[in-house]
Amino acid sequence: MPINSRSVVTVPRTATVMEAIEIMAAARIGSVLIVDDGCLEGIFSERDVMLRVVLEHRDPRKTQVEEVMTTPVHAISMRTTGDEALTIMVQEHIRHLPIIDEKGRAQAIVSMRSLLQEKVSELHQQLDSLESYITADGIGG
Known about the structure:
Distance between the termini: 31 Å
Radius of gyration: 19 Å
Strand order of the largest sheet: 1-7-6-5
Number of helices: 5
CATH architecture: Roll
Mean pLDDT: 91
């Protein structure tokens, strides 16, 4: 199963939580990647907002994302299959997985939702193919 990813949205580690949240809201996404000089340093997600900002009573206008981002980040290469990515996400309990190049630069990001949608579509195609095969009314059928 190939991976259907979206382009990556990044913020510098010095961005405030509020700046990151505003970017996430504008892009209608659940996470942003934290980069330093182009290299992936962390990920900041809705879960980080809830557990590390709201729950700890931090001021999102004064808190920098590097203080509350998730690090180290699990990442995959462009050669990783969708099934491999899903396995990593399930084992590590993560919903967003960055795709990086050989130099550690973020290229894209894939979500659990998109991978599951692809998997369901793939399974529907397999089911349709099997139903056609079973119900075929040809020679020897």
